[in-house]
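Section 5: illustrative case.
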């Protein structure tokens, strides 16, 4: 008896839904119209006259199988590690998801009156208390829906405080100092809030250049400093107290990017360092989902002096009751509808309560240990631009591999063949061919070793057979894309003559 050779499964080369279209196929049946038909209920310019021409004609099973097959192609945190530096792709516990789906939380309408929302208000209040304790700052708003919005909220608080403190003279205090290694959102937020950005140089050790910082402060007009700590090259700013004192002496305030709290929670508090305002990323540090662009939550916390300017409403406690306080005359106003993304808050509090104080500290220590392990293991294989001990992120450069024509993008693409999501590449810009690796505390020793082995193997390939790496990936359903052309000349809709449209673009 012979066994017929198995043919390739069609899902290995899935057609577009448009290409699966067959005339006459439908996946629905509408009931017969039981009210008088009104042809002109919509204005003519809003009505289609092509009878849905070009819309794929497919059955229900065609649709289900098509999108199910495509879903199996996705790489996710449930499949393996995401070493994305500055992104913190840690595993999101299913327990947190279960808690978020408790009926009283998941089914609560945002317009429900206070007396019917006491449990939710209590949860938000408790989360606020915990985050204030973790950061060492007493004021908080959970409204911002993402880190960038939390950052923008923090900068607006600084602007409002300065305008209140200095009055008309505040117009002469419009300089925001930002290190050259900062996130791209920092200068954007500063500009949107009406500030002019001046860049602070970094030292060869990857730290803020104190001499340059003081020189810029001496020029006057300083409104504040936007700082990431640990910074974007993964190093703790050991001069943080001196940095804050210098800015305060110049009459400015210090904003800190708290997305990097993964190296600080339970160990150090920014408020104790002299930081005036900070944003956190619940979808990073506190293990709430951030796939697909959100929804997220980027709480903004501040010192006592900035509290009068926080977004409204503020959730406050009187006796055993919780209520919404809108009476903040100096507020910058709302930054998000309702009270923010409540589901993310539920997940974050679940994460905090699950770990407790000791568990949160252990998570921080493990995240730092994992990054230093990777940094140590790859120190002889890849160039390390800075020799200081890293915190929760390890940074490398392609300098050694580029001698063979292999650059960071090639290494990232080749990692896909090894079954790993690439790390963050070409960020921060101060490092040539940067590869920023953040394993997080979710990754065990075996996975770390497998990642290190893959990186070592890719280096060996770069030396012995560079074309193999330059032309990667080889195991994916499609090869390397022309990402520059795709960004500059995007084709955003399917057409029958799609190939011609692409060529024309």
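Designed sequence:
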């Amino acid at each position: 008896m012979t066994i017929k050779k198995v043919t390739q499964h069609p899902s290995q080369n899935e057609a577009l839904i448009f290409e699966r279209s067959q005339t006459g196929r439908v996946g629905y049946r509408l009931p017969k119209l039981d009210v008088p038909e009104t042809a002109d209920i919509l204005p003519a310019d809003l009505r289609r006259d092509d009878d849905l021409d070009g819309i794929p004609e497919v059955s229900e099973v065609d649709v289900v199988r098509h999108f199910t097959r495509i879903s199996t192609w996705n790489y996710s945190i449930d499949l393996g590690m995401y070493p994305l530096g500055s992104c913190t792709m840690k595993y999101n516990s299913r327990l947190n998801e279960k808690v978020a789906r408790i009926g009283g939380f998941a089914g609560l309408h945002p317009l429900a009156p206070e007396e019917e929302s006491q449990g939710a208000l209590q949860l938000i209040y408790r989360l606020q208390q915990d985050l204030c304790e973790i950061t060492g700052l007493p004021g908080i708003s959970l409204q911002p829906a993402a880190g960038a919005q939390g950052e923008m909220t923090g900068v607006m608080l600084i602007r409002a405080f300065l305008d209140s403190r200095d009055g008309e003279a505040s117009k002469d205090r419009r300089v925001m100092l930002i290190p050259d290694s900062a996130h791209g959102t920092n200068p954007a937020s500063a500009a949107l809030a009406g500030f002019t950005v001046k860049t602070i140089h970094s030292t060869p050790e990857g730290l803020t250049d104190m001499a340059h910082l003081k020189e810029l402060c001496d020029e006057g007009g300083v409104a504040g400093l936007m700082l990431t700590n640990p910074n974007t090259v993964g190093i703790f700013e050991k001069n943080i107290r001196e940095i804050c004192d210098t800015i305060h002496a110049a009459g400015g305030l210090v904003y800190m990017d708290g997305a990097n709290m993964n190296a600080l929670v339970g160990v150090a508090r920014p408020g104790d360092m002299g930081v005036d305002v900070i944003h956190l990323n619940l979808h990073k540090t506190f293990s709430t989902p951030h796939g697909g662009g959100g929804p997220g939550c980027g709480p903004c916390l501040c010192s006592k002096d900035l509290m009068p300017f926080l977004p409204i409403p503020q959730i406050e406690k009187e006796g055993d009751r919780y209520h919404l306080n809108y009476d903040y005359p100096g507020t910058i106003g709302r930054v998000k509808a309702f009270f923010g993304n409540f589901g993310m808050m539920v997940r974050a509090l679940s994460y905090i309560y699950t770990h407790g104080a000791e568990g949160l500290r252990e998570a921080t220590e493990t995240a730092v240990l994992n990054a230093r392990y990777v940094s140590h293991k790859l120190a002889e294989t890849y160039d390390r631009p800075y020799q200081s001990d890293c915190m929760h992120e390890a940074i490398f450069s392609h300098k050694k591999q580029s001698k063979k024509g292999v650059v960071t993008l090639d290494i990232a693409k080749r990692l896909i063949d090894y079954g790993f999501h690439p790390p963050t590449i070409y960020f921060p810009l101060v490092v040539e061919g940067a590869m920023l690796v953040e394993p997080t505390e979710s990754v065990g020793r075996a996975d770390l070793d497998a990642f290190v082995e893959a990186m070592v193997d890719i280096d060996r390939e770069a030396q012995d057979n560079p074309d193999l790496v330059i032309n990667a990936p080889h195991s994916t359903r499609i090869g390397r894309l022309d990402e520059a052309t795709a960004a500059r000349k995007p084709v955003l809709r399917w057409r029958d003559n799609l190939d011609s449209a692409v060529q024309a673009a």
